[in-house]
Amino acid sequence: MAGEGVSRAISVDDLLLLNQEIAALVRAGTPLERGLLLAGRDVRGRLGRIAQALSGRMSQGESFLSALEHERDAIPPLYRAVVEAGVRSGRLPSALEGLTRYVPGYSEARSAIGIALWYPLLIGSIAYGLFLGMSTLIAPKFAEAFPSLGLKLPWTLDWINRIGQASHLWWPVGPIVLIGIGIAWSVSGRAARFQSWAWGLPRLMPGMKRLMADYETANFAELLALLLEHNVPYPAAVLLAAQATGNRPMTAAAQEIAAALERGQSPSAALENVRPGVFQPMIRWAMSTGADSGSLPESLAGMADHYRSRARHRAESMRIFLPALLLVVLGGGAALVYGLSLFLPLVELLKELSFG
Q1: Does residue 27 lie in a domain region?
Q2: pTM score of the predicted model
Q3: Do 40 and 153 lie in a common domain?
Q4: Which of 75, 94, 116 is the endpoint of a domain?
Q5: Same structural domain for residues 177 and 308?
Q6: Separation between Cα atoms, residue 198 and residue 140, nearest integer Å
Q7: More confident site: 315 or 166
């Protein structure tokens, strides 16, 4: 079992199952190497291989932390940091329980975002396909009919026909966007860094940016509280919590804050150079107090509940109102395009044939 780890990054759901198994073994006082070996035999796939790899290393005398370090490609840094903090503070069961609360929060955010995206993507795909068919199959037939009857081609029909003739240039855009979103969805489910950076495309959809910002803030606050509760140094805790969100501006700001804190600046001074909007106002205020306040972890946990509750409300509102909005925008837009490109030219054609 020497050398590097045996597996690539596991999913968030697999990380949750692994953490629950380890937490149960720790609570029961069962030797981890034996429990993980049995769990690895019962579970197939990457999760089973990682459990067996951890068990094998610990059976050879390595510590739990050392075994986790060898699986760093599969298990995210924040998990190792929380476990290390729990071991050093003698509160490993508590640290694992904290992770059992945190990881489902990320999974919940991902599920809510996915559900909110499903209907818009479906409606958008159908509208895209119908427009492609109309511009490449139907519009050219009408465009041929007008000149053959000695009639002037309406500009709207000519416009749609020209778009259809150039369809070889633009039709791949739709599938490429769908493939990109699919890849983003797959990457966002990996636990290497809880990569919500993969949600770049979905952020462009109405309401998604604020929804995702609330979930990211909730995850950041909850993890920062967990790390501080287990005595992780404040600079490292801020950086790890930001990296776990996958939000690049937040991670960059956290790096600046951590560097400033290590130079001896106060938390409030370290936050002065961070542009507004990277951190939500309440989180920014809490961070400015630093880790010196004994109530900071409790305050952050309360803020995490607030932002997660607000994100749930936004997600529910999107599930209710976004379909209606899309129906009006896409349905009305499709009706307008069909009317201008087909119905009006057809009426004009019949008028010319009747009175011409």
Answers
A1: yes
A2: 0.61
A3: no
A4: 75
A5: yes
A6: 40
A7: 166
